[in-house]
């Protein structure tokens, strides 16, 4: 299917002319910094000159002032910790569940056919549909966020793992069988390496979705964490603080993306898609 | 004939088992949060009347459609421009990287500052902004990843820039654009619901939360089911459009796989 393959193959085009690479890269870096500065300066000017009402968009410098103020306060670190913890636990549970279920279903043609319609039906159900339900059952406890995160991330993982297991080279599988590998050994040394790139894709998609749902649960339901602080700041009219929290949450998102990319590169160092990037 | 029966059996087997399981397990339920499935189904026709569909479901879907449409147009236009110009790409990459990483629901409080949250505007802007990034970034990647032979051929045949755009670049990038649009659609549905949890006016999300606050539990369950059905319906619709517009691509991939 298209989603996996499209997201899987990072520019496999060979890099041209290694000589011109370094100046190019430093030029790109400077352009990137310039871009960031343009956006920051633009927002600052819009607000200072009053083109946009500063009550709605405070100057960027004020946002950062309020951000640094927050860094010194205990509640901020506690909320940050709760958000990251909720995200990590939910994602880990969804990954574990998705991989195990995916391997089991994927290794049997019967189970694949039998569950296909159900998976296709349950997958697009938006996890926010569960919000009223988890409010009734768990209220503002962290379990509410956990259920939403796991539900949302699980399908992403499961579907990718199923693609991955289905992608195993039949010749390799038959070879392993004729060498009388047991099912566990086949899973470990034939299926797993094929499925690993897909599992990494699943990890990337799942990590982003898990963060979205964790923040949503905090913002909408009131589970403790940065999202809740954001809602409180906004409704109490603390505008610079609202923006500061949005910036922090954005940086968490950036950090998550970087972390995922790092793990991907570490786990797939042998895979052509990563090797061609480095050579 | 038997083949069709077999396929139907595979497709319907598990859903039937699950639904029967739910029906039996919940049959005598006195737990207020888990009403019997029969009660939920009985509440269905009285809850989702014509009035409610027109007053709550249609506006929600209309807002989703408008927001998603804006995001598709903006995403493709900006994405193509950024994808075609290496300097523009280098200039905007860190900024885009940041905006992509911001979980879309945090836009809600910010947009609430500007537009308030009772009208349509704030909700549409939320949906459009949330849906924009996946489409934009995938368009950039799609335009960048074009086969160099294709672009070189177009150039050597002296196709005008406009024709190159319409006949080479956009079709070449379309598989990636669809990948982005599919991610965006599911984010759009999430934002459609969330945006209505804040503004106190009508809409699908608002209705469901209303049921939950008034402890109308069977009605709330029907709402959860309706939301699920809408999600499934939209995904099916999207797949139909995608299969039609990307028929050439699906065929090409099948040939590549077979070879």
Structural write-up:
- The complex is a heterodimer of chains A (279) and B (259).
- Chain A is mostly helical and 279 residues long.
- Chain A has one domain (74-278): MetI-like fold (Orthogonal Bundle), CATH 1.10.3720.10.
- Chain A has twelve helices and no strands.
- In chain A, helix 6 crosses helix 7 and helix 9 packs antiparallel against helix 11.
- The radius of gyration of chain A is 23 Å and the shape is globular.
- Chain B is an all-alpha fold.
- Chain B is built from eleven helices and no strands.
- In chain B, helix 3 packs parallel to helix 6 (120-144) and helix 5 (107-115) crosses helix 6 (120-144).
- Chain B is flat, with a radius of gyration of 23 Å.
- The two termini of chain B are 31 Å apart.
- The interface between A and B is large, with 64 and 65 residues.
Task: Tell me the Rg of chain A in angstroms.
Answer: 23 Å
Calculate the mean pLDDT score of chain B and round it: 84
Number of strands of chain A: 0
Shape of chain A: globular
The ordered H/E elements of chain B are HHHHHHHHHHH
Summary, kept brief:
The complex is a heterodimer of chains A (about 280) and B (about 260). By secondary structure, chain A is an all-alpha fold.
List keywords for this structure.
heterodimer; A: 279 residues; mainly alpha; MetI-like fold; B: 259 residues; 85% helix; 0% strand; flat
Write the layout of secondary structure elements.
The complex is a heterodimer of chains A (279) and B (259).
Chain A: H1 2-8, H2 21-48, H3 60-71, H4 74-106, H5 109-122, H6 131-138, H7 142-166, H8 170-178, H9 183-221, H10 226-235, H11 239-267, H12 272-278
Helix pairs in contact in A: 3-11, 4-7, 4-9, 6-7, 7-9, 9-10, 9-11, 10-11
Chain B: H1 2-26, H2 37-47, H3 50-84, H4 86-101, H5 107-115, H6 120-144, H7 148-156, H8 161-198, H9 204-213, H10 217-245, H11 247-258
Helix pairs in contact in B: 2-10, 3-4, 3-6, 3-8, 3-9, 5-6, 6-8, 8-9, 8-10, 9-10
């Amino acid at each position: 299917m298209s989603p996996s393959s499209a997201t899987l193959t990072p520019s496999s085009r060979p890099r041209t002319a290694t000589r011109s690479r370094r100046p190019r890269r430093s030029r790109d870096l400077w352009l990137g910094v310039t871009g960031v500065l343009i956006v920051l300066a633009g927002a600052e000017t819009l607000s200072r000159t009053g083109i946009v009402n500063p009550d709605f968009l405070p100057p960027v410098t004020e946002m950062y002032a309020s951000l640094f103020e927050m860094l010194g306060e205990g509640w901020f670190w506690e909320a940050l910790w709760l958000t990251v913890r909720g995200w990590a636990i939910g994602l880990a549970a969804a990954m574990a569940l998705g991989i195990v279920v995916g391997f089991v279903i994927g290794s049997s043609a019967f189970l694949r056919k039998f569950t296909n319609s159900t998976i296709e039906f349950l997958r697009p159900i938006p996890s926010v549909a569960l919000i009223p339900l988890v409010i009734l059952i768990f209220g503002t406890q962290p379990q509410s966020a956990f259920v939403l995160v796991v539900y949302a991330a699980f399908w992403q993982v499961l579907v990718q793992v199923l693609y991955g297991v289905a992608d195993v080279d039949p010749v390799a599988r038959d070879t392993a069988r004729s060498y009388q590998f047991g099912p566990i050994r086949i899973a470990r040394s034939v299926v797993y390496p094929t499925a690993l790139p897909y599992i990494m894709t699943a990890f990337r998609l799942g990590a982003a979705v898990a963060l979205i749902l964790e923040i949503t649960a905090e913002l909408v339901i009131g589970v403790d964490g940065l999202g809740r602080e954001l809602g409180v700041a906004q409704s109490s009219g603390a505008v610079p603080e609202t923006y500061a929290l949005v910036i922090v949450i954005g940086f968490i998102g950036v950090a998550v993306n970087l972390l995922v990319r790092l793990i991907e590169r570490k786990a797939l160092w042998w895979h052509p898609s990563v090797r061609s990037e480095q050579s | 004939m038997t083949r069709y029966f077999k396929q139907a059996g595979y497709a319907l087997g598990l859903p039937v088992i699950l639904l029967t399981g739910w029906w039996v397990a919940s049959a005598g339920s006195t737990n207020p949060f888990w009403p019997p499935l029969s009660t939920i189904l009985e509440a269905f026709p009285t809850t989702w009347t014509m009035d409610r569909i027109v007053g709550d479901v249609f506006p929600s879907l209309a807002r989703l459609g408008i927001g998603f449409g804006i995001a598709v147009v903006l995403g493709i236009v900006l994405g193509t421009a950024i994808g075609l110009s290496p300097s523009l790409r280098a200039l905007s990459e860190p900024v885009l990287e940041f905006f992509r990483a911001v979980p879309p629901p945090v836009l809600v409080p910010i947009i609430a500052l500007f537009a308030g949250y009772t009208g349509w505007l704030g909700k549409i802007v939320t949906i459009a902004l949330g849906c924009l990034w996946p489409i934009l970034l995938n368009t950039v990647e799609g335009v960048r990843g074009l086969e160099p032979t294709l672009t070189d051929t177009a150039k050597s045949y002296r196709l005008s820039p406009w024709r190159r755009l319409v006949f080479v670049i956009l079709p070449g990038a379309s598989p990636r654009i669809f990948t982005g649009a599919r991610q965006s659609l599911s984010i759009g549905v999430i934002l459609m619901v969330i945006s209505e949890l804040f503004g106190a006016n009508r809409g699908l999300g608002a209705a469901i939360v209303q049921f939950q606050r008034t402890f109308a539990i069977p009605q709330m369950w029907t709402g959860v089911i309706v939301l699920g059905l809408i999600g499934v319906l939209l995904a099916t619709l999207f797949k139909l459009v995608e299969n039609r517009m990307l028929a050439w691509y699906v065929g090409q991939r099948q040939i590549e796989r077979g070879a």
